[in-house]
UniProtKB/TrEMBL annotation:
GO molecular function: methenyltetrahydrofolate cyclohydrolase activity; methylenetetrahydrofolate dehydrogenase (NADP+) activity
Catalytic activities: (6R)-5,10-methenyltetrahydrofolate + H2O = (6R)-10-formyltetrahydrofolate + H(+); (6R)-5,10-methylene-5,6,7,8-tetrahydrofolate + NADP(+) = (6R)-5,10-methenyltetrahydrofolate + NADPH
Residues in Tetrahydrofolate dehydrogenase/cyclohydrolase NAD(P)-binding domain copies: 140-281
Membership in a protein family: Belongs to the tetrahydrofolate dehydrogenase/cyclohydrolase family.
Gene3D superfamilies documented for this protein: Leucine Dehydrogenase, chain A, domain 1 (3.40.50.10860), NAD(P)-binding Rossmann-like Domain (3.40.50.720)
Keyword set, alphabetical order: Amino-acid biosynthesis, Histidine biosynthesis, Hydrolase, Methionine biosynthesis, Multifunctional enzyme, NADP, One-carbon metabolism, Oxidoreductase, Purine biosynthesis
Species name: Sphingomonas turrisvirgatae
CDD domains membership: NAD_bind_m-THF_DH_Cyclohyd
Protein name per Swiss-Prot or TrEMBL: Bifunctional protein FolD
Record note on quaternary structure: Homodimer.
Entry keyword annotation includes Transmembrane: no
Amino acid sequence: MTAQIIDGKAFAAALRARVGGVATAFETASGRKAGLAVVLVGEDPASAVYVRSKGKATLAANMASFEHKLPADTAQADLIALVDRLNADPAVDGILVQLPLPAHLDEQAVLLRINPNKDVDGFHPVNAGRLATGLPGFVPCTPLGCLMLLQDQLGDLSGKEAVVIGRSNIVGKPMAALLTAASCTVTLAHSRTRDLAAHVSRADIVVAAVGRAGFVKGEWLKPGATVIDVGINRVEGGLVGDVEFDSAACVAGAITPVPGGVGPMTIACLLRNTLVAAHRNAGVELDEAAL
Ligand SMILES: Nc1nc2c(c(=O)[nH]1)N[C@@H](CN(C=O)c1ccc(C(=O)N[C@@H](CCC(=O)O)C(=O)O)cc1)CN2
């Protein structure tokens, strides 16, 4: 193995500490804590773990955490009514509805109901539009975390060839938009892409977000490429990413592990977005780029 391992866990811990310091200063300046409301519907075990982690991380960063746990058979109207109450609550700066929702609920309608200025997940189409057009808004946490890791690793990304594999609204599309804004030349590849290996072989940066264990092979990579693995696939023996780690680590210059790479950045960026929302809502100045 020759690749450097990108330690997302350590980077995320440092970001959470920085957010905690700024959150304390925010409380002094505004007379209240920044607040994050998290809504969990049902009992999906992985979602319950993520929601618990979010609550703990929020409190540890000196912000207020409001957890709303609803039964799996919650009606659409009741969930919408809760979102409306959170939209109107001045103690709540950020609202997050944990995904996936149970199948009977209309996810898009729920996400559309969140006030875009409290949409710290960055999933509302208004925030997607702001990202696409370079306006200030909220960027989805996982791609934002990937961008931070890439900039820490490579510095200026301008002119780099980047391939993003996966075109979801939550990761692939915003990731491509962020890399475009960072002046990369971006290919957004997906399940219908022909000769994916040829695209990947030209890339300085590969972001894999396809949701298929070990899908990207080491022999596809350009030697020295930086590989960001967004996949979290549960297989016998534990968690693996979308990249075949052992073969990729022999060719890449740097690679994120799974676990301990991109995953921890998701929650750290959620805290960051919540603190940004609090400053905007309270009219307290913040150097957002420095956070
Ligand atoms: N409303 C949202 N729902 C979901 C999101 C999201 O960003 N907003 N993302 C995922 C789940 N998620 C946070 O919600 C999340 C996933 C993974 C991790 C993480 O730290 N993973 C660890 C491994 C954890 C394990 O052992 O299972 C890692 O990769 O190192 C954090 C948050 C879907 N839903």
